[in-house]
Write a structure and sequence with these properties.
The chain has about 210 residues and is an alpha/beta fold. Helices cover about 35% and strands about 15% of the residues. The mean pLDDT is about 95.
């Protein structure tokens, strides 16, 4: 069972905390982590691209010239792909790129991502993150004290003041324990968890 230091919002060590080996000491399954990242990116795709094929562009209903005797190559339509203003070969059409992963696979991928952050010493546990008012400088100060300029911050639940203090920071993303993302865990250099968030994560993914 791993033991990590617990910091306050001033960056001072205020204690230690044991982490569950079932969640933060899980086997690294790179194939599932890769699949989770691919799924995340695929689900974000709009899939609205569209181009017209030769059957959809206007015009071209008549043969431009007779088959033989003109000296030109034979042509059946002026909207064939080789013509200007012609249709597109294998034109893209709107489609849904999203796909699903099994719940057990998702949990295993998240456990692997959390374990990798712990092993690389990029996991920071904070006793709590709470602000009396919503100001960006509050979160900037906390991240500076923790040495986490580019961080994925996870709380136990939603907090309005913390959310409003974070949303203008491009290098900091806020989430809660119920919506962990493998992509975001890997994207950001540091993973910052509150003690309550750690307990909630261990209950869900153990």
């Amino acid at each position: 069972m791993a033991n990590v230091s617990v910091y306050n919002m001033d960056g001072q060590t205020v204690g230690t905390m044991d982490l569950s080996d079932a969640v933060f000491g899980a086997p690294l399954k790179e194939n599932l982590v890769h699949q989770a990242v691919v799924q995340h990116l695929a689900n974000k795709r709009q899939g609205t691209q569209k181009a017209k094929t030769r059957g959809e562009v206007s015009g071209g209903g008549i043969k431009p010239w007779r088959q033989k005797g003109t000296g030109h190559a034979r042509q059946g339509s002026i909207r064939a792909p080789q013509w200007r203003h012609g249709g597109v070969v294998f034109a893209p059409t709107p489609r849904d790129y999203s796909f699903k992963m099994n719940k057990k696979e998702k949990k295993a991928a998240i456990r692997s991502a959390l374990t990798s952050k712990l092993q690389s010493e990029d996991l920071i546990v904070v006793d709590k993150i709470a602000f009396d008012d919503a100001k960006t400088k509050n979160m900037v100060r906390v991240m500076k004290n923790l040495g986490a300029d580019k961080a994925y911050v996870v709380l136990e639940g939603a907090d309005r003041n913390v959310f409003l203090s974070t949303r203008n920071l491009q290098e900091v993303k806020l989430s809660h324990a119920g919506s962990l993302s493998v992509y975001d865990i890997l994207k950001y250099k540091k993973l910052v968890l509150t003690q309550d968030a750690v307990k909630a994560i261990e209950e869900v993914f153990a």
